[in-house]
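Hello,

Our lab assistant flagged a job as stuck in the queue for most of the afternoon. It eventually completed. Since we weren't sure the result was trustworthy after the delay, we are filing this so someone can double-check. Below is the sequence as submitted and the structure that was eventually returned. Let us know if re-running is recommended.
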Amino acid sequence: MRATVDDLDVILESAGLAPSVHNTQPWRFVADGDVIEVRSEPSRQLGYLDPTGRQLHVSCGAAIEFAYIAARACGRACDVALLPDAGDRELLARLTLGEPQPATADDVRLADAIAVRYTDRGAYSDERVPPTVVGAIAERASQLGAWTRPDDRRALIEVLYAAEAAEASDPDYAKEIAAWTNSSGDVGIATKATKSSWPGDRVPEVPLRDFSGSGAHPRPADSPEAPPTVERDLLLLLGTELDDPGSWLAAGRALGAALLRAAAEGIAAQPLGQAIDLPRGRARLRRELGLVGHPQFVLRMGYGTGEPSTRRRTTS
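-- returned structure --
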């Protein structure tokens, strides 16, 4: 059964709503009947933060998972082949739509979350993320060839601060952030999205990325009546056994699945990219936490109060 135009439109639009490093959207989709190719867009690879292309692959992996979930919600079987052609390095995945296969209630619920998922850089409430949600995220990650673990906060926070200090001391870091931050358009980081609002009586325990490149963070009011509350959000580490393009794509798929599971449960998330931006930060994270595998992503999760705001270029 050949995919309808409407189904393809839904799948491609859903894939295009995936998160990507600095909202670079480093992908291109090519649809031919029941086959969808996900291709990299090398011109959108970050020079400073992504010298190896790892984050480009993770971003495209999230788009692949979004497309897969949308296909399932459309009632189609979907086979995903990662890196199907060794001679075509830009071809990252080939999705083949199969016979009609009724969508489960969970398929539809996750697909519905695609339109409302967003990055919330503001304060989260004190309500804890349920273990059942963390368990569901871990189960899907395992199915995709990745792993997750709520990690040692102290070690992780130390690595985050050290990594951010190293980035903030390099003018090339600030230059690249500035180049991808703007107040209009459909690509890059929206200026308003970088200005998260934190109450004066609450501060984050972890360093959140400062899009000025100078390492500034939310601080308590000048004269608080009481000591500020230090936020204790969930920190979730996502990794893979190996550290190669196929693993990066698998990590991206697991990331996409985690974000949609969270969004479906009303849980917000924010990437803590400083720890995994550069090879030296990832090496230290691996050493400090005694990891056997390779860290690929760190998420801050909790119940936020922000509103969805997503900018995307057209997928056609």
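-- support follow-up --
The delay was a queue issue, not a problem with the job. The result is valid. Residues 54-73 form the longest helix (20 residues). The domain at 5-113 is CATH 3.40.109.10 (NADH Oxidase).
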